[in-house]
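Worked problem 6 (solution included).
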Amino acid sequence: MKVKRTFSVAIVALCLATTACATATTAADPTSGAPTAGYPVTITNCGKEYTFTQAPSRVVVMNGGSVAEVSTLLELGLGDKILANAQSYGASEVPGRADAIAKLPTGDIQLNDMMDIPREAMIGLAPDFVISTYDGGFRAEAGFATRDDLAQVGANTYAPASSCGEVGTVSGTPSIEDSYQLLRDFGKIFGVSEKADDVIEKSKARIADVQDKIGDLPKKKAMLIIPGMAMGGAFSSVGGNAIWNDIMAKGGVENVFAGATKDMFANLSAEQVAKADIEALVVVNYMSEDPEADAKKLFDQFPQWDAAKDNRFVVLSDSIYLSPNNDLAVEQIAKAVHPEAF
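Solution. The predicted structure is:
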């Protein structure tokens, strides 16, 4: 969910490849004087070290077009630590997740034209931890509070390692492991590593169960498209390279356009799409009133696809990106393309 902001920058977060490390000792609770197990914790993020003497309690989550970060906090039971959240998506594979995000405090912030938190408002919130989906969320030239600005008011900062460099760049090959790393990092920072490990193990077990069911069944050739996100032509939001390729592969499908570009999206012509061998369609619900109608429209346009002939598609939302719930996307894809295995 990378380049400019709003939704495209969210892709930066979806392709997270964090390499944060942490150490832990024991510190005194500053309010009671009693020792607090596991602190201080020091992580390295984007080339700088950040030390936490206790779990953050005034957390601000910047938008960036992602819900990976706020969803991870909620998955770990940390919603009460959130002072202000600017992330939203409106749909989720997790029952109640979208509503839970909508009910989080916003800090009554007047967002900027990128639908994010400007510098003055951020400083005014007096946070102790600020999470951005990409390092550009701390750029002074974009009107944001910098990491140094926030350090001066006592706030540590965090952004995915894959977006620590120049804005619009991605490093590595995104995978579900990136989602697990985000869980591990937040587990360390908030002192809930056991919970994070439990979420990860349950996700791995669910994915392993799916893969046992589909076994050696042939992978279907699939196209992923986000109809509500097209920034250019009608097929400018066809999935190229991102975390969804790993998710799709584990669910029994192969992204036919993964090799069409080195970028996250393959900006294709209608002719290229028409010629492709599409056996399954993955429709990503982003601000769509009727994602199933979006699938039908594509099938009407390309009736020669096997996917159209078999009416084989799956609608996903937040679980197809960087998320604590990628296992749900894996399972739903597998059920759509290999129902005989379930």
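Discussion: Residues 215-341 form a domain with the Rossmann fold fold (CATH 3.40.50.1980).
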